[in-house]
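Hi,

Apologies if this is the wrong queue. I'm a grad student, and the batch job for Fructose-bisphosphate aldolase from Thermoproteota archaeon produced an output file that my downstream script rejects. I'm not sure whether the problem is my script or the file. Here is the sequence I used:
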Amino acid sequence: MIGEAIEIGKLLAASNLIDGASGNMSYREGDKIIITKRGVCLDNLSEKSFVAVDIDEMSEEASSDLIVHQEIYKNTDYKVVLHCHVVYNVVLSFK
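Support response: The file is valid. Your script probably expects a header line. Output copied below for reference.
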Protein backbone atom coordinates (compact mmCIF):
# COMPACT_ATOMS: atom_id res chain seq x y z
CA MET A 1 0.00 0.00 0.00
CA ILE A 2 2.90 2.40 0.63
CA GLY A 3 3.87 1.98 -3.02
CA GLU A 4 0.40 3.08 -4.09
CA ALA A 5 0.53 6.09 -1.76
CA ILE A 6 3.89 7.12 -3.24
CA GLU A 7 2.44 6.87 -6.75
CA ILE A 8 -0.59 8.97 -5.78
CA GLY A 9 1.70 11.72 -4.49
CA LYS A 10 3.67 11.68 -7.75
CA LEU A 11 0.48 11.69 -9.82
CA LEU A 12 -0.94 14.69 -7.95
CA ALA A 13 2.29 16.63 -8.48
CA ALA A 14 2.70 15.59 -12.14
CA SER A 15 -0.88 16.73 -12.80
CA ASN A 16 -0.03 20.12 -11.24
CA LEU A 17 -2.84 19.64 -8.74
CA ILE A 18 -0.57 20.30 -5.73
CA ASP A 19 2.54 22.37 -5.17
CA GLY A 20 4.30 19.33 -3.72
CA ALA A 21 5.00 20.75 -0.29
CA SER A 22 1.45 20.88 1.02
CA GLY A 23 -0.71 18.09 2.31
CA ASN A 24 -0.51 14.67 3.88
CA MET A 25 -2.00 11.24 3.45
CA SER A 26 -2.71 8.14 5.47
CA TYR A 27 -4.30 4.75 5.24
CA ARG A 28 -5.72 2.33 7.76
CA GLU A 29 -4.00 -0.99 8.31
CA GLY A 30 -5.86 -2.90 11.02
CA ASP A 31 -5.64 -0.85 14.24
CA LYS A 32 -2.78 1.22 12.86
CA ILE A 33 -2.69 4.35 10.76
CA ILE A 34 0.15 4.67 8.29
CA ILE A 35 0.59 8.41 7.83
CA THR A 36 3.09 10.73 6.20
CA LYS A 37 5.70 12.16 8.51
CA ARG A 38 5.74 15.80 9.50
CA GLY A 39 7.27 18.01 6.80
CA VAL A 40 7.45 15.53 3.91
CA CYS A 41 6.44 16.60 0.41
CA LEU A 42 3.78 14.57 -1.39
CA ASP A 43 5.70 14.82 -4.66
CA ASN A 44 8.83 13.23 -3.19
CA LEU A 45 7.57 10.34 -1.05
CA SER A 46 9.52 7.20 -0.20
CA GLU A 47 8.93 4.34 2.22
CA LYS A 48 10.79 6.39 4.84
CA SER A 49 8.20 9.18 4.46
CA PHE A 50 5.61 7.27 6.51
CA VAL A 51 5.19 6.32 10.16
CA ALA A 52 2.82 3.77 11.74
CA VAL A 53 0.72 5.06 14.63
CA ASP A 54 -1.99 3.46 16.79
CA ILE A 55 -5.39 5.00 16.21
CA ASP A 56 -5.30 6.66 19.67
CA GLU A 57 -1.56 7.36 19.85
CA MET A 58 0.16 10.73 19.40
CA SER A 59 3.42 10.95 17.51
CA GLU A 60 6.02 13.69 17.11
CA GLU A 61 7.04 12.11 13.78
CA ALA A 62 3.58 12.04 12.21
CA SER A 63 1.97 14.81 10.22
CA SER A 64 0.69 17.71 12.29
CA ASP A 65 -2.78 16.74 11.04
CA LEU A 66 -2.61 13.32 12.72
CA ILE A 67 -5.54 14.11 15.03
CA VAL A 68 -7.79 14.93 12.06
CA HIS A 69 -6.89 11.64 10.37
CA GLN A 70 -7.48 9.72 13.62
CA GLU A 71 -10.92 11.23 14.12
CA ILE A 72 -11.91 10.43 10.55
CA TYR A 73 -10.88 6.79 11.01
CA LYS A 74 -12.58 6.52 14.42
CA ASN A 75 -15.87 7.85 13.06
CA THR A 76 -16.02 6.28 9.59
CA ASP A 77 -15.07 3.10 7.81
CA TYR A 78 -12.78 5.03 5.44
CA LYS A 79 -9.56 3.27 4.50
CA VAL A 80 -7.62 6.26 3.11
CA VAL A 81 -7.42 9.98 3.89
CA LEU A 82 -5.79 12.42 1.49
CA HIS A 83 -5.45 16.04 2.56
CA CYS A 84 -3.93 18.45 0.08
CA HIS A 85 -4.20 22.05 -0.96
CA VAL A 86 -5.14 21.89 -4.61
CA VAL A 87 -3.33 24.71 -6.45
CA TYR A 88 -6.46 25.97 -8.21
CA ASN A 89 -8.39 26.26 -4.95
CA VAL A 90 -5.55 28.15 -3.31
CA VAL A 91 -5.37 30.58 -6.24
CA LEU A 92 -9.12 31.20 -6.03
CA SER A 93 -8.87 31.88 -2.31
CA PHE A 94 -6.51 34.80 -3.00
CA LYS A 95 -8.90 36.58 -5.39
